[in-house]
Amino acid sequence: MTELPPSTLQHLLAQIGQQDFKAFERVYRHYHDRVFAFVLHMHADRADGEEITNDVFLTLAKNPMAYQGHARFSTWLLGIAKNKVFDRMRQRGRHVRTESVDENTWCAMADASGDVVTQALRHEKSLALDHCRDQLPLEQKQALYLAYYIDASVEVIAAEQQCPTGTVKSRLFNARQSMRRCLERWQGGVTP
Amino acid sequence: MNSPQTDEQRFAENLPFYVNGSLPTDEHAWMAVRLVQHPQWQTDVDQARQERIACQAVHSDIAESVRLARIRSQLAWPDSTIQTQAPKQKNPRTVLTHPWLTGLLGMLLGALLVAGMGIRAPHGGPTTNAKQDAALRRGERRDCPVAQDIRISLSPSTQWGVLAQLLRKLQLQLVSGPNQDGEVWVRIDKGASMAETLSLLRNSPLIELALPASTPPLSPPCPP
Question: Which residue numbers delimit the RNA polymerase sigma factor 70 region 4 type domain (chain A) (predicted)?
Fold first, then answer.
């Protein structure tokens, strides 16, 4: 999950500005999976995820020098992705939840059991996880992505989300609790 | 002293960072001790590890070449974009140091030599070679595939449709392939530059290797 070296990145962005598709391809190959995974974490629909990721890189190709180097390049790209996810959700008429929600509206309280979760992961892992993650508030989804995909520390996530480390820990704790309950409901045959 | 509830809360809050390896050493040690004290919490660790693995297993279902081709068409950057990536013109002496070009020139010279020998000592009947000899004397180019064919090794992810588009764009004619090694032989358009075509092909992400080919399989034999 490394970044391209700053000098290399600047050179490639300048080349992209001159419509050099080879330079674009290099940046695309380096960052695509990260952006795609982020988009899927924020918005479970795979078809939408492909479209949004495509749009992110189109935005990059059309105006590469919009990146001013104030943040890491991946952070900048994910910022574009996040905005596009918001736009897509609004287009689809979905409510954009950014913070805590009444979890009982979608997930009944249950006695957490790791075995149940393990079974759910084993049997319908991808589908169930996508569904349950999609129910989370966006900030929780983003924190999960940063913790599990980027392997970011709590301090890094706090910086990315511009909040105290305690908030990050709470977000992740709540996200995992919600996911667990949702997966149990899924395993029980009830669509949460 | 912390209450068990507090310990449990702290353990749960640290868990994502315990499994992703970013926890500070002292907290990591604290987690390890609690795991020994509360072996039932191992289940939570296993769950978090599975969540992390599932999180990282997200990949696009669409081949990269297809995704890139789509963006390329959406951008509609001019075709000259490809040409601007070709190596700049070098002085002729430098160009001749390229092994592939030396080989190409060698093949052309060889072909001319063989053709010349055909003029001096025709082994076919006088009627069959008469027109060719006359054409050669007039300086006309023989339509021989030698040195005008290119062997291409495709990238594993290359989609046939995308390759076909590239061949059309470069006005290349498919001669043979693909074989089991993912190689195809193509023929460049009359009048097109072999060096330029090779350069364009080598700049394409669809292609791993492009070399002049003297003996394309299944191509019609070069007339003697």
Answer: 127-179
Q: Do B64 and A149 touch (CB under 8 A)?
A: no
Domains of chain A and CATH, by start:
6-92 (1.10.1740.10), 103-187 (1.10.10.10)
Please state the pTM of the whole predicted model.
0.56
Best to test chain B binding among A150, A154, A156, A160 (most B CBs inside 10 Å): A154
Non-local CB neighbours of A141 within 8 Å, separated by 6+ positions: A41, A42, A133, A175
CA distance B17 to chain A (A): 6
Are A19 and B77 in contact by the 8 Å Cβ rule? The answer is: yes
Report the sign of the C-alpha dihedral through residues B18, B21, B24, B28, in that order: positive
Two tokens at B118? 């055909």
Q: Which two tokens stand for residue A54?
A: 């495509």
CA neighbor of A169 nearest in space, from A146, A189, A190: A146
**What tokens does A154 get?**
């709590």
Supply the ipTM of this predicted assembly: 0.75
At B107, list the tokens: 């093949």
Q: HSE of A41 in the Cβ direction (CA atoms, 13 Å)?
A: 30
Q: B180: pLDDT confidence band, cut at 50, 70 and 90? A: low
- Which chain A residues are Cβ-neighbours of B44 within 8 angstroms? 114
Instruction: State the DSSP code for B60.
Output: -
Kindly give, in sequence order, each residue whose CB lies less than 8 Å from that of residue A47, ignoring residues fewer than 6 positions away: none
Confidence of residue B104 (pLDDT cuts 50, 70, 90): low
